[in-house]
Amino acid sequence: MQRLQKVIAHAGIASRRKAEEYITQGRVKVNGEVVKELGVQVAKKDQVEVDQVPIYQEEPVYFMFYKPRGVISAASDDKNRTVVTDYFTEVKERIYPVGRLDYNTSGLLLLTNDGDFSQKLMHPKYEIDKVYIAKVSGIATNKKLSPLSKKMHIEGKTLAPAKFEILSSDKKAQTSIVQLTIHEGRNHQVKNMLKACGFPVEKLKRERYGHLTLENLQVGKYRELNKNDVNRLIEETKIK
After folding, report:
1. Where does the RNA-binding S4 domain start and stop, copy by copy (predicted)?
2. How far apart are CA 42 and CA 44, in angstroms?
3. pLDDT for 210-239, tens place per residue?
4. How far apart (Å, rounded) are the C-alpha atoms in residues 153 and 186?
5. CA 169, CA 75: separation in Å to the nearest integer?
6. Which of 39, 55, 71 is the last residue of a domain?
7. The domain that contains 97 carries what CATH number?
8. Catalytic residues
9. What CATH number corresponds to the domain at position 40?
10. Rounded to two decimals, what is the model's pTM?
11. Which domain holds residue 164?
């Protein structure tokens, strides 16, 4: 038996908090009866509907994927472009990405059918580290990148301070390799932050998400996370 809101979240319909709103609004039925009370427990055999649409009670699954460049971080695309779920044809569950990586950004992306887990990891208040490696135009210096260590105001949004490290510079090519650690996940955040410091990004890869790394994983491949991985990710969030 599981709480009704948890079942809805695991089905990828909404976060657990949003699922609770659906329940109190009378949008959820269990075995044909509207349920408005929180805390109701349902079994596998029970039929759950949200807005008259039955949901399949899948077991939660979690994957780590090495996203290639030129792939959309979505479960579908109206322009028929390649999406990340195209690489998961053998997975029967209806999974979707946790957050996103830009079309031309490669690297570590999580996918799941657990809406509650996804919401927890995506919310900036939970402060889970994400590490990026960027190839930028120009010779980076600590002084020029120092604004990254403070709150930045870009396109009307306040971005939390980031940690950075200059890994290398190529004076002949006039490029630098910079490692950036952030815990938010706003659209084009890394590119916008580096550009604001005078260093347009030429190439970008996410190398780490919490404790997870791309070690031993090839581009376009994935592995299922075990219970240990999932629990550790949750533990790594600063606010439970």
Report:
1. 2-59
2. 7
3. 999 999 999 999 999 999 999 999 998 865
4. 13
5. 37
6. 55
7. 3.30.70.580
8. 102
9. 3.10.290.10
10. 0.81
11. 129-209
